[in-house]
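Reagents: none. Just compute today. Calcyclin-binding protein.
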Amino acid sequence: NQLQKDLEEVKELLTKATRKRLRDVLMTEKHKLELEIKNQPPPKPKDVVEEEKSSLGGYTVKINNYGWDQSDKFIKIYISLNGVQKLPTENVQVNFTERSFDLLVKNLNGKNYTMTFNNLLKPISVEGSSKKIKTDTVLVMCRKKREEKWECLTQVEKESKEKEKAAYDTSDPSEGLMNLLKKMYAEGDDEMKRTINKAWVESREKQSKGDIPMDI
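Predicted 3D structure written out:
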């Protein structure tokens, strides 16, 4: 298991680290890895795995597109799959843990479909969670353990948003603008890059003439 190997390496580094800042970073990483390992679905017995492989047939497609919504009690994930309502109920399986779920749809138009969510933002109730099959849609209902609003689905998403926010959260407004422009330039198409280049050149020309006192 790769996660277990990562954890062992982090523990090894912790025994050698002497700087407080480095130890804090390693301790945070150690905690994250332990959480991921804890929340992994339990391994299935070998005979069950072999039976599933033989019953699948066809080839397996990983689902990446989905929509989600929430109510006070549930996180709802909508997965579009044409004709899924025609399958036998046992062909659509969802396994839940407190911080994850995985979906398996077997033999839909000659293909199998899988989706896995690890590290959900907050704990869910395994017993209270379920699935519903609708026309061309699978609805996964994750029952919240606490009735509170989730700002995103997973811990990884939350950390990614916080890093992005930190990158543009600065006491210097001109620095924040520069970071934003750099991001737009890096992610933009050719037209966006031309627009930013033009604006940059024009602002430099105005500044050199004394029209703009501050460097943007």
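The chain has a mean pLDDT of 81.
Action item: order primers for follow-up constructs.
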